[in-house]
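lol so apparently i was supposed to do this last week
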Amino acid sequence: MITKISTLGGYLHEYEKSVADPAKFWSKIAENFYWRKNWDKTLEWNFDEPKIEWFKGGKLNITENIFERNLFLRARQKAIIWEPNDPEEECRSYTYDELYLEVNKFANVLRDMGVQKGDRVTIYLPMIPELAVAMLACAKIGAIHSIVFAGFSARALAERNNDAKAKILITADGGFRGNKVIPLKETADEAAQMAQDIEKMIVVKRTGKEVNMMKDRDFWWEDLMQNASPSASIEVMDAEDPLFILYTSGSTGKPKGVLHTTGGYMVYAAYTFKNVFQYSDNDIYFCAADIGWITGHSYIIYGPLLEGATTIMFEGIPTFPEPDRYWKIIEKHKVNQFYTSPTAIRALIAEGEQWIEKYELKSLKVLGTVGEPINEEAWHWYHDHVGKNRCPIVDTWWQTETGGIMISPLAGIIPTKPAFATLPLPGIQPVVVDKEGNMLEGRNVEGNLCIKHPWPGMARTLWGNAKRFKEAYFSTFPGLYFTGDGVKVDEDGYYRILGRIDDVINVSGHRLGTAEIENALNEHPLVAESAVVGFPHPIKGQGIYAFVVVPDLAPDIHDELRNSLKKGVAKLISPIAKPDEIRFVKELPKTRSGKIMRRILRKIVEGSTDFGDITTLVNPEIIKDLTEN
Ligand code: WT7
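anyway here it is w/ WT7 bound
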């Protein structure tokens, strides 16, 4: 197990060591794990190609580090406590032993279907234990899991499957979310028509609703598991063999298949989990994210299970059946660490204090937030009403691409400041650069956040697209990893994340590319073109504002068209991507080269008239039009 940093002095000391000799620092941490063979070289890298290799030549399996490494001590300890959507339904929990057997069984099911090391498997499941079993079974046999959030549409699922070329899709007859039933199998069937690679579907029974099962293609999970043997061998992986792909949005329309590999990701997920949350043996840890996002991968499953934690997996939503669900779960399971998003906190603030007042929440020791900047008001409410003024808040900044938390307080060790992610974790070397790439050193600076040295958890490439990997992260500022975020370093050297500076918007902690929403809008036969920008939204952090050009638009169909555009986006991408506001305009502000000037649209949405330099605008007369209506 990883030894926690326990004092501020300890942090400073570790940080210094990690910068002086990163390879030595990380190799010491990696020694905590079980390797079938030690690595030949700790780190090989350059950020030009880029090439990033950690623990090369080392042989291991991440599930052996979860199970065999923990089983002796924790066979009967709960690994996963599953809390269903409906509180009336019984909780299911799995000890390390029980989870191990389920994973083995499903590993055999996959092997029987012909899945081999390096094959991709798409997982499209709700937050049920089978999701954890499926991902770990993939890891056990060396298959690369590609989990697609169950809120995504058939098109989005097909697009991801087409990129990863997975032959197997794992889904469910449906999912429960609040009072809704999500017809996942129907969506998966629709996706399969657009995703020719899918040969087989494994379907978990969750809702019991009748679904269409195609002969020789679709199989019930339960049937396959019934006869599966509970013992399975691991696939011995190289440290740099792929572990998973996770798609995320970028500034172009096509999602990026972020690839994480085995050894470095394992070391980083476990190290950051243990230190940031200061997890102690027998603590109960609850991360309210969905496993469909990186937060769930690293901090519901891999990080906690590697460190022998008890992790809660929650199927539902915070407001069902009533807006006290989180507090109920925390009380019921005596949760010690709780991790959620600023959007969830703001939504619960809006429900009123009466929902939390009756809960003492005595078990809580640490609170965490992730996904978007947290405003001071939400920070204070979280601190006062949830933490009762005695729990440190860890505001954790990181990304799908970083694999784990990068800038964050260590709970109770690094003094916090509302809305600040505070300081980099050991091993992380952030730099701030201006537009031209000049380093802005020292304190009281503001600019673009980059990282100048590799860390074990970082993405290695984009699936099948090394060129785009280089362009997106290593080309804006050569020699540096570019995060896409703006940052401010204050007089204490504390980092405050300001949000995305590229064409990515962050809605409720979900990352969406403006281009993908525009593409979806443009598919409507009446739409000529569109431009999407984010705007400050009191609950969601950012809302989606769409400017849409519809030639010859009849005034009486405005509302109808707005509705049909919103529905269209939900259908093509996901309900998350639905614009909050749609405004019909005659033209969009463009540069001479035809590029939409989103900067101007952002100003308009904010109600500002300070447009800055507009000399490159080819149609300046439209500004008047846009500001007047
Ligand atoms: C983007 C990454 C990392 C898991 C969830 C999101 C924003 C993330 C914070 C934070 C301010 C944050 C950034 C980042 N972000 N955490 N604590 N404070 N902003 O992962 O979907 O890959 O999005 O989320 O803008 O670049 P993601």
